[in-house]
Amino acid sequence: MKCLIPFLVSVLGSGLLLSFCASDARTKQQIVFATFAEDRAALTNALLVAESIRTFGGSYRSAPIRVYVPQLLRDDMSQFLDRLASLKVGVRTSAAPEDAAWFYFSAKVYAAGRAEAEAESETALLAWLDEDTIVLQEPAEFILPQAKALGYRPVMHRNVGLLYDGPVDAFWRRAYDLLSVPEASAFPMVTPADGDTIRAYFNAGCMIVRPERGLLRKWGDCFAVLYRDSLLAQMCREDVKKRIFIHQVALTGAILMHLGRDEMVELSGRINYSIFFEQMFEAKRTFDDISDVVTFRHESYFGNPAPDWDKKLKGPADRIAWMKARLGKKKSE
Question: 162: Cβ–Cβ under 8 A, 6 or more apart, which residues?
Fold first, then answer.
């Protein structure tokens, strides 16, 4: 009997430990949604992201939602507090290095890294979405297979990207060299807007990541290397598109140097669909059908929408009615 007591204590103790570990694993969120709002207009958009998740998110409608803002906006957002509270949206601050401010979207890069760091101990997956995103259906595709560390979409069109069968220009070659990214690692992907086959060039407005891999923090590191390079800075002064999109070049470098291709999965075209993209930026195809869309982006469209846009958009009547009630309203309304 005396010999049995230590054995029972050991077995019970192991059982309690296993139970505790299982309980601890269950308390970790499956997914957290996060976005960045630089000003009041963007915060208004971010509230619609949250409302769409709470309304149409299905199994994930109750998932944590976080909006990252600069401190100045955090200090002046009293008019948003009730709405944020009603949607159970957490507001957190982030900041970018002062010398990054000249480059477009720099604040978003560092907000993404902050969101990832703060989510690491709390969630298996982080959905980093631009604030002009709307969720229309349960985003089951966001729940990545266990072996995958990144769910991504290609950039909508080539822009400053490179055709896959074309030469590497001085801008990208300098970026590859600075980040020690072999040119051969830039695998092909197809742009949704034009069907061009380009070298790997990732969309920065929709990413699903495993926070423990640190990809979004690596993005900030790579961005700093690129924007602080005098040669690339000169190229950005000569070409505003390079200044606008150098953050996506940094993201591409971070992904290619940090993850194997077998750790990535390209999300379907139902994700990050850009409505009326061809009207805003020109494209070889139209984006006027949300029938099967899970998430869409509206970018600047509702700043000056066509009066009858809702008649031109194909898809479920209830979703279009929801959009019409919330998007494209004038400030006086």
Answer: 168, 169, 172, 186, 198, 199, 201
pLDDT per position as a tens digit, 72-131: 999 999 999 999 999 999 999 999 999 999 999 999 999 999 999 999 999 999 999 999
Mean pLDDT of 202-227: 98
Look up residue 25 and give its two tokens: 């694993």
Say whether pLDDT at 5 is over 90. Answer: no
Here the tokens at position 1 are 């009997």
Q: Is the pLDDT of residue 285 over 70?
A: yes
Rounded Cα distance between 138 and 61, Å, is 8
| Pairing mode, strands 202-209 and 123-129 | antiparallel
DSSP secondary structure string for all residues of 34-93: EEE--SHHHHHHHHHHHHHHHHH-GGGTTS-EEEEE-HHHHTT-GGGHHHHHHTTEEEEE
User: Structure tokens of 164?
Assistant: 């896959």
Whether 289 shows a pLDDT value over 90: the answer reads yes
Q: Which residues pair with 127 in a beta bridge?
A: 33, 208
The set of residues, in sequence order, having a beta carbon less than 8 Å from that of 69 and lying 6+ positions away, is 36, 37, 38, 43, 77, 91, 92, 93, 94
Structure tokens at 265: 């999965």
Residue listed under structure tokens 């379907």? 268
Give the Cα separation of 188 and 165 in Å (integer): 9
In the prediction, which pLDDT does 329 show?
60
Q: How many CB atoms lie within 10 A of CB 116?
A: 27
Identify the residue whose tokens are 């296993």.
18
Go through 259-268 and write b for each residue having 16 or more CB atoms within 10 A of its CB, e for each that does not: beeebbbebe
CATH class of the region 28-320: alpha beta
The answer to whether residues 189 and 201 touch, using CB atoms and an 8 Å cutoff, is: yes
Q: Report whether pLDDT(145) > 70.
A: yes
Please, what's the b/e burial string for 135-150 (b: 16 or more CB within 10 A of its CB; e: otherwise)?
bbbbbebbbbeeebbb
pTM of the model: 0.90
Query: What's the sign of the alpha-carbon dihedral 10, 15, 20, 24?
Result: positive
Q: Tell me if 134 sits within 8 A of 298, measured CB to CB.
A: yes
